[in-house]
Design goal:
The complex is a heterodimer of chains A (about 300) and B (about 675). Chain A is α/β, with parallel strands linked by helices. Chain A contains 14 helices and eight strands. Chain A has two domains: about 120 residues, Glutathione S-transferase Yfyf (Class Pi), Chain A, domain 2; about 160 residues, Rossmann fold (3-Layer(aba) Sandwich), CATH 3.40.50.11810. Helices cover about 50% and strands about 10% of the residues of chain A. In chain A, helix 4 packs across helix 5. Chain A is globular. The two termini of chain A are about 30 Å apart. The relative contact order of chain A is 0.14. Chain B is α/β, with parallel strands linked by helices and about 675 residues long. Chain B has five domains: about 130 residues, Rossmann fold, CATH 3.40.50; about 170 residues, 3-Layer(bba) Sandwich (FAD/NAD(P)-binding domain), CATH 3.50.50.60; about 70 residues, no CATH class; about 160 residues, FAD/NAD(P)-binding domain (3-Layer(bba) Sandwich); about 55 residues, Alpha-Beta Plaits, CATH 3.30.70.20. Helices cover about 30% and strands about 25% of the residues of chain B. The longest helix of chain B is centred in the C-terminal third of the chain and has 21 residues. The C terminus of chain B is likely disordered. Classes of the chains: A alpha/beta (about 300), B alpha/beta (about 675). Chains A and B meet through helix 9 of A and loops of B.
């Protein structure tokens, strides 16, 4: 299985653990990721609200750079995924906009035909392309005894042809039951993490973050699984300030789902980027899980 | 001898004239099409003055062919054919060009529309010159009628016809007649007991001398045409002999196997493996559900057989095929409830105290699984607050764009029942309140007075994730109150989802069986949405009730009666005129290959073994043209649609594909003809 890989800027700094664990897990599952050469910014949310045509052109450059032999691109970041998918759909459906974007791309001797590259999220590829049997076969350290809250965030299942139920997605839930984890019912799984409100009005953001953390605590979760750099950053880095603001305390590790997937596959935390998070996850893993089977036999 | 063709271009007010230059079309046709002696335009051709104009021209100018360029032939072909006939011209020497539905209503550019209108007129004119006089055929109408569906619409139709003295065959899929209405507790806005008004009609049908019921049966096949349909019905095996069974019910009582009743009790209650759906079922004969019966599944038990006092249990019974002949068919196949799980944010199937409207109907019903008590899923706790969410799966681009028509009133009825039976607060979460029929708005006013809460807005989600202490343990309905302009979180104990009415899962198939079509929404298409709501495009097939579109009980009853009245008209007249558009075989050319015999979808071609040729049975032929196209020897001709006529029509339609100086008719018909 060969895919182009678009990491996006977050995965190079604040969410480097996501990038590390995605690559490791892909290796274990035989997902052949080929990083797009010279990729650039996806435009984030800001650029799209300024000038959509220019933003789309910026995104389209990445699609145009995908190896002509490859027709799928994997994107782990929720925002990048949404932007790439949106641009591809727009270019496929609207010949006029597609033409304008290609006019811009031609300055760099590039061209992209909307619909040529299928934009896919990492979860989708793992769940749909690898599938249950192959994943179960790779589990060396079942997550038995660990309670996880599956947090999808607002973006991943939002594109029109979402790969999961838009309002009540379940694929992350199911994936972790295959790994042996206890997946708690997490009703806020698609609710907002606050996004950039942390920069604009902290009290608003704190309230949204509190709800998500409170609900996970209430449902007995040991950690929250995320698939979005923004969600991870907000729930992790702002966990302390949120607790201070409400005169309470939290100790809820927020990890990328691929990190825990790696743990289940018997990889060591240090191979998966653990230690970069602010609320430490390793103590929870040590407390809840038996040591890796491969580690004990080795 | 050249024909004398008259062309009449209709303005249809501004319907056509607003987009097509009708005067130009008429002038052009008069100047450019061969054999046209009169070409006129007129405001409304279908008016009596318009018709008179044609009739006078036929008499004075000696027209031998007439073309009217106006609306769809579905609307006025009959009108103009009759006008021609009254003036002494064979009605099949008339042709209609559709320049409204096919041109003006779908065009955006005036020049292009005018050009296309010319093409339509030229096509009709070239074709009409080659048309031949035909004589309509008359067939007798079988006075028996098939009614499909034993809900309230089907029951009404059945009774109207049976009371008028005509035989009716009533086919119902479920073990009992009664339909959805049998499940309801009260009916809006009068609040009379649904069973009390329905069951007398059910037993009347059950005992009527003119009614033959086929319950637990399916319509499998329909052949023939108006006046003389042949239908095949599959009577599914009940495993109970209807002749011997007295309906005492002891078999159900003693049956050791209980299962969830997903049909009548909407999953809220249980039934036995041998059962009648409800106590007032008609007929009383039970059926065995082989999926859950211990004998059928495990080869043990036979309790019902041992206990039955008349020896009516028959485990060997098989499906039975019944073939009937009827003159007309009324489809009253009803609806199914939208699967509320699809609106996943409302939590049905995930949050136990979210109910569907059908479940709530059963819960309110005194004969239902809770004995009429409104309680949570645990079966005992009374709710302190209930939210009723409207438009679940209706008026929603993700599911069904249409309004389901009955839900607002049903929600008000539920509100009334909650306030009457409990101390609970009840909230109606509505987008728009729709109460348009007689006494409906008054019922809404009544509920406003009774203290039901109305919150206007589309519910975003139903969640069990409380944010503040008083929300914990509750279901929270999150929505924007669009009248207040604020977000609201309404904590309740129970949520009722007013699910959309949807076409039956196999509605398309049923339609195909009977030769009628479904609209994009899946409901059966009527002949005219306003003026002919119970007839269909297939003569002799009528629709009634919700299968034609969401409607309430009064409207369903009205349609049932209307369909019956239409059928009675056919029966009373006794004969029906059939279009003489049929195929015929030229025996000289037929090689006896029999390809057409198997292709004919109506079984209308027989084979003459002696002469070794195929022959069309005119009474059965529908003129579809399949055999005409398939015959390798060109031995079959479709009357009114022969090769020459169609080729001429195509040549006419392509008038502007040729050089400007040529007239459209030049060199066409004979050059294109093949089967002369």
């Amino acid at each position: 299985m060969k895919y182009a890989y678009y990491p996006g800027c977050s995965l190079e700094c604040s969410s480097v653990a996501y990038d590390i664990s995605v690559r490791k897990v892909a290796e274990v599952l035989g997902i052949d990721l080929r990083e797009i050469d010279d990729w650039n910014c996806c435009g984030a949310t800001e650029f799209f609200s300024q000038d959509e045509l220019v933003a789309c052109s910026v995104v389209a450059r990445n699609l145009a750079l995908v190896d002509p032999q490859i027709d799928q691109v994997v994107v782990p970041c929720a925002a990048c995924y949404l932007n790439l998918k949106k641009t591809d759909t727009l270019m496929a459906e609207d010949a006029e906009i597609g033409g304008k974007i290609n006019e811009a791309l031609s300055a760099g001797n590039l061209h992209y035909q909307g619909g040529r590259v299928r934009v896919r999220h990492m979860l989708e590829v793992i769940y749909d392309d690898v599938g249950e049997a192959a994943i179960r076969a790779k589990v060396k350290r079942p997550l038995t005894g660990l309670k996880v809250a599956p947090y999808y965030g607002c973006q991943v299942v939002r594109p029109r042809d979402a790969f999961d139920d838009t309002e009540h997605p379940v694929k992350l839930d199911e994936l972790f039951t295959w790994l042996g984890a206890e997946v708690v019912d997490y009703p806020l799984k698609t609710h907002c993490c606050g996004g950039h409100m942390t920069q604009i009005s902290e009290p608003q953001a704190f309230e949204l973050i509190r709800r998500l953390l409170d609900s996970a605590v209430e449902r007995g979760a040991d950690m929250i699984l995320t698939m979005c750099p923004m969600c991870q950053l907000n729930l992790d880095a702002y966990q302390g300030p949120t607790a201070n603001y409400f005169h309470t305390s939290f100790n809820m590790p927020i990890v990328f789902f691929t990190q825990m997937l790696g743990i289940a596959f018997g990889l060591e935390p240090k191979q998966l980027g653990f230690g970069k998070e602010i609320v430490a996850a390793e103590p929870v893993i040590r407390a809840k899980l038996a040591p890796a089977a491969s580690a004990t036999t080795a | 001898m050249a024909e004398k063709v008259g062309i009449y271009v209709c303005h249809c007010g501004s319907n056509i004239a607003g987009m097509v230059d009708v005067e130009e079309v008429a002038k052009w046709a008069g100047a450019n099409i061969d054999d046209v002696v009169v070409s006129r335009d007129y405001k409304f051709m279908c008016s009596s003055l318009g018709q008179q104009m044609i009739q006078e021209d036929i008499k004075k100018e000696g027209l031998t062919r007439v073309v009217v360029a106006a609306c769809s032939p579905h609307l006025h072909e009959k009108t103009f054919r009759r006008a021609c006939e009254d003036a002494g011209l064979n009605p099949f020497l008339f042709q209609m060009a559709n320049i409204r539905e096919h041109v003006s209503w779908v065009a955006k550019d005036k020049d292009a529309a005018t050009r296309k209108a010319k093409a339509q007129v030229a096509a009709a004119a070239e074709r009409v010159k080659l048309q031949q006089p035909l004589k309509p055929m008359q067939v007798e109408v079988n006075p028996a009628t098939l009614v499909v569906g034993g809900g309230i619409a089907g029951l009404q139709a059945t009774l109207e016809l049976a009371d008028a003295g005509y035989p009716v065959y009533l086919v119902e899929r479920e073990p009992s007649i009664g339909g959805h209405m049998a499940q309801f507790d009260k009916t809006f806005p009068t609040l009379d007991c649904s069973a009390c008004i329905l069951t007398p009609k059910m037993s009347e049908v059950g005992q009527h001398e003119n009614v033959t019921m086929f319950t637990y049966s399916e319509l499998e096949e329909v052949s023939g045409s108006v006046g003389n349909f042949k239908v095949r019905i599959r009577k599914k095996a009940r495993y109970v002999n209807e002749e011997l069974c007295t309906g005492c019910g002891i078999c159900s009582e003693k049956c050791p196997k209980k299962v969830v009743d997903d049909a009548f009790e909407a999953g809220l209650g249980k039934r036995k493996a041998i059962y009648t759906p409800f106590p007032q079922a008609v007929p009383r004969t039970p059926v065995i559900d082989t999926e859950s019966c211990i004998w059928f599944q495990k080869g043990k038990c036979r309790t019902c057989e041992k206990i039955c006092p008349t020896g009516a249990i028959d485990y060997e019974q098989e499906d039975e095929i019944v073939e009937l002949e009827v003159g007309n068919i009324i489809l009253a196949t009803g609806w199914k409830m939208f699967d509320c799980r699809k609106v996943s944010q409302y939590g049905y199937g995930r949050l136990p105290n979210v109910f569907t409207s059908m479940e709530f109907e059963r819960m309110c019903n005194a004969a239902g699984p809770t004995g009429g008590k409104i309680v949570l899923r645990d079966g005992k706790t009374e709710p302190e607050a209930i939210a009723i969410i409207h438009c679940v799966g209706s008026r929603d681009v993700n599911h069904n764009p249409y309004c389901s028509n009955v839900c607002c009133m049903a929600a008000l009825k539920f509100g009334h029942l909650v306030l009457e039976k409990t101390d609970a607060d009840v909230y109606s979460c509505y987008i728009d309140m729709r109460t348009p029929s007689k006494d409906y708005e008054e019922f809404y006013q009544r509920l406003l007075g009774e203290g039901m809460h109305f919150v206007r807005g589309k519910v975003a989600e139903v969640t069990d994730a409380g944010r503040v202490p008083f929300e914990h343990g509750k279901l929270i309905v999150q929505m924007e109150d669009t009248l207040l302009g604020r977000q609201r979180r309404i904590p309740v104990d129970m949520v009722v989802l007013m699910g959309a009415l949807e076409p039956q899962a196999d509605a398309k198939e049923t339609g195909r069986t009977c030769g009628i079509s479904c609209a994009a929404s899946g409901w059966f298409t009527e002949r005219h949405p306003k003026l002919d709501p119970v007839a269909t495009m297939t003569d002799g097939v009528f629709v009634a009730g919700v299968c034609q579109g969401p409607k309430d009980i009064p409207a369903s009853v009205a349609q049932g009666a209307a369909a019956a009245a239409r059928v009675q008209g056919m029966i009373t007249k006794g004969v029906v005129t059939i279009e003489p558009i049929v195929a015929s075989v030229d025996e000289e050319r037929c090689s006896g290959c029999r390809i057409c015999n198997t292709l004919c979808p109506f079984g209308a071609i027989e084979f003459d073994e002696e002469k070794q040729v195929s022959r069309v049975i005119t009474a059965l032929c529908k003129g579809c043209g399949t055999c005409v196209a398939a015959c390798p020897a060109n031995a079959i001709t479709g009357a009114h649609f022969n090769f020459d006529q169609i080729s001429a029509e195509i040549a006419g339609a392509l008038w502007d594909a040729r050089a400007d100086d040529e007239s459209p008719a030049a060199g066409t018909p004979s050059a294109a003809g093949t089967a002369s």
